[in-house]
Amino acid sequence: IKVGITDPVLDPKGKLTAAALTAAQQTYHLPTGFAKSVRANAAVFPEQELLGRLESGQLDVGFFYEDEAMPAHIPTVGLGKVHESATYTVTVLNHAPDADAGAAFVEYLLTTARATLEADGMQLVAPSVQGDTAAVPESLLGVLG
After folding, report:
1. Mutual orientation of helices 34-41 and 12-27 as an angle, nearest 10°?
2. What is the pTM for the complete model shown?
3. Each residue of 95-128: b (16+ CB within 10 Å) or e?
4. Where does residue 12 rank: exposed (0-12), middle (13-18), buried (19+ CB within 10 A)?
5. Apex CA 80: angle with CA 31 and CA 115, to 5°?
6. What 3-state DSSP class applies to 5?
7. DSSP 3-state assignment of 4?
8. Residue 43: strand pairing partners
9. Starting at the edge strand that comes first in sequence, how are the strands of the sheet with 3-5 ordered?
10. What are phi and psi of 112, to 5 degrees?
11. How far from 99 is each of 9, 14, 89, 106, 140, CA to CA, in Å?
């Protein structure tokens, strides 16, 4: 079986894959070394290549975020009691070349695109500001509450 993963050292999805394999080994009392063996025998690809390699038949299986598998119509199998998840964040840099466009994009994500994101399997949490709230663009204050 040809398994594809992303690099656990360089990519958050790869790190979650490694954590999920380790959790599965412990949860399901799999043999010692199971997780390490899967990682050692898997082909490692950059995230942007993994889906294409699976779809082209170069891989039999890959580890994907649910929100990328759903729109690509990739059949998925969960890991049962093992639930690893990722948190996506967004920011507008204080001195971005086009901070107004950045703020407009964040507003779009939190309003207009929200239904699409949720339909694709993302669970949105209430937005919060980390750090200096005085640095938040005025246009986003209403969206953030």
Report:
1. 140
2. 0.74
3. eeeeeeebbeebbebbeeeeeeeeeeebeeeeee
4. middle
5. 145
6. strand
7. strand
8. 4
9. 43-44, 3-5, 61-62
10. -60, -45
11. 31, 31, 17, 10, 12
């390490």: which residue's tokens? Answer: 36
- Distance CA(143)–CA(123), nearest Å, equals 17
Residue-wise pLDDT tens digits, 5-61: 999 999 999 999 999 999 999 999 999 999 999 999 999 999 999 999 999 999 999
In the DSSP assignment, the letter for residue 79 is B
Rounded Cα gap, residues 140 and 127, in angstroms: 11
Structure tokens that stand for 107 in this block: 């507003």
Spatial distance between the Cα atoms of 30 and 17, rounded to a whole number of angstroms? 16
Supply the mean pLDDT for the chain. 91
Residue 42 in tokens: 């898997």
**Rounded CA gap, 71 and 15, in Å?**
23
d(CA 28, CA 60): 23
